[in-house]
Amino acid sequence: MHKLKTITLVALCFIIGLSTCLFVGCGNDENKIRLNEVTHSIFYAPLYVALNMGFFEDEGLEVSLESATGSDASMTALLSGSADIVLVGPETVVYSASTQDHPVVFGQLTQRDGSFIVSRDALDEEFNLQMLKGTTIIGGRAGGLPAMTLQYIIENAGLTIGENTSAGEVNLRTDVAFPMVGSEFETSGAEYCTLFEPTATNMQNKGSGYVVSSVGKFSGSIPYTCFATKSSFLENKSEQAEKFLRAVKRGYDYIAQQDSLTVAKALEKSFVGTSVQELQVAVEQYLSIDAWCSDPAMSEESFNTLIEIINNYSPLSSIPSYEDLVDNTIANLVA
Hints:
The protein is an alpha/beta fold. 46% of the residues lie in helices and 15% in strands. It is globular and about 60 Å long.
């Protein structure tokens, strides 16, 4: 009987040890973070610097990165449990406010629209939005923050969006997939388009268009791209979330402190096929419009601007509160 008890005890200890290993990942899974980004863009440079310079490893984190094909796909990954954190436009968080264990913004990465206005012809004077009157401009996909922001600044300038360009309306096209905007602009008769870097400068270098301004110049500060996670993740893994955001903040600090060439070289690993020169131009362009957040906390004022932009595009049936969707606890710790 004593021998049987001993065998049973040993077996029980083995099962407990195995269960512990399975549930906590043998001590490793706690610090593994699955990150899903809305798209892969130099616009998110502080994140890639943090990845490539080992800032996440310094925090004891193992971060895996997967790119989606839009904010909807990223949010689906988060809500389905295949991602722990997503980098998305915060409009997606607003749209998902009613879901169980709803997503919460816990850090902001970019604070301006990152697209640049490209004209087919060189301009003799400084660009202003009135120049869009009676023209066609190719923007982002319908319902996405780039398209909504572009519509917002056009209408705030007193212009009317519509297809009757002969009557002075602005034909804002939102029927072109994000990767195809440049090629559509080259082959269509559109007078303007919006492009992110380095595509905008590359088009100018080819002589196919001219970078004349940025959307961010006219929109001002808005919470353009943010890190979001389920509210349960912030409750159960706040330490990991803090380490994650601290590493990203170090990525921003690195960009702010180094010259653009050094930053471009730090980004090389994330953009195979893009030259260091192209990366350098993109970094300089985004620095010139103050695209990145030095403070990852999202302000209530910028959140309200976001809601205004969304409502301008399509009125919300109900407006979620800033307090429900934004938690700056961790952002304030790492700022």
